[in-house]
Specification:
Blueprint lengths: L1 H30 L29 H5 L14 H20 L3 H23 L4 H14 L8 H26 L6 H41 L10 H26 L3
Helix pairs in contact: 1-3, 1-4, 3-4, 4-5, 4-8, 5-6, 5-7, 6-7, 7-8
Length: 263
């Protein structure tokens, strides 16, 4: 009983810490594309500019208490804020339940944190900052020396295969249509994903992102009636595919090998 209670408290603490980090990630998501300091000034309303009191800046809770509005000017607060906090807290909890306080927890939480930041920045600006993806490639490779999940050679292959695969697609698309299809940010993001997950994770991510991206893309094109000119960020689909691989990739591979191929 005591052990179960202690584990429950640990899970709660990890979730709350994840939510608090998610609150800080919201600052980065808002300010990084604008080239503003992520340290100063402190948290403030983007509409009226008034500083947010600490009791109005409690992750998830404050949004609910304030009914999604600023406490001063009563303007709507974007749903992104509690969404990022909740997603980050949930990912931290799921990783903790899988690994406990092992090095793999911190490596993979660093990875999913970068994915959360990149996803929401890409949704807002249709760009993926190099300041996140390029250091992420190095962190993924370094992390492979401290965890057993991905060997350093597998990480290196993931970088080369992931980035190289998308680079070839981008070159081919530009050659055929004489316009940019995949941005350089997507190429670097897939290289980062390969660094953390290895070559198999990079390939899984490409397949999953292409499938979900195509489904959503067709729906958006049909609704907007803009055809192939519709702008749709691909980074969020890559991030979703990478997270799916972290939690279910090996099971899906095993199912495919044994149930589909009969091996």
């Amino acid at each position: 009983m005591a052990e179960n209670a202690a584990f429950a408290l640990q899970q709660l603490a990890v979730f709350l810490i994840g939510c608090c980090l998610g609150s800080f990630y919201n600052v980065i998501i808002h300010r990084l594309p604008r080239q503003e300091s992520i340290v100063r000034p402190g948290s403030h309303c983007p509409h009226c500019g008034k500083p947010i009191a600490f009791y109005n800046n409690i992750p998830l809770v404050s949004y609910l208490v304030l009914a999604g509005r600023c406490a001063y000017c009563r303007q709507h607060i974007a749903l992104r804020y509690p969404l990022v906090e909740g997603i980050t807290g949930l990912l931290a909890l799921l990783l903790f339940r899988r690994y406990g306080f092992q090095p793999q927890l911190f490596v993979e939480f660093c990875f999913v944190s970068l994915l959360v930041l990149i996803t929401f920045i890409d949704l807002d600006t249709l760009t993926i900052p190099d300041v996140l993806s390029l250091p992420g490639i190095g962190l993924g490779l370094i992390g492979s020396f401290f965890t057993p999940a991905v060997a350093w050679l597998d990480s290196l292959l993931g970088i080369l295969l992931g980035g190289g695969f998308f680079y070839l697609i981008a070159v081919g698309y530009h050659y055929v249509r004489h316009q940019e299809g995949l941005g350089g940010g997507d190429i670097k993001l897939l290289a980062m994903i390969g660094a953390f997950t290895g070559w198999s994770g990079a390939m899984f991510t490409v397949f999953a992102a292409s499938l979900t991206g195509a489904l959503v893309g067709f729906a958006v094109m049909w609704r907007s009636r803009k055809g192939l000119t519709t702008m749709l960020p691909f980074g969020p689909f890559l991030a979703l595919g990478a997270v799916c691989y972290l939690f279910w990739g090996q099971r899906i591979y095993a199912w495919y090998l044994y149930e589909v191929l009969g091996k």
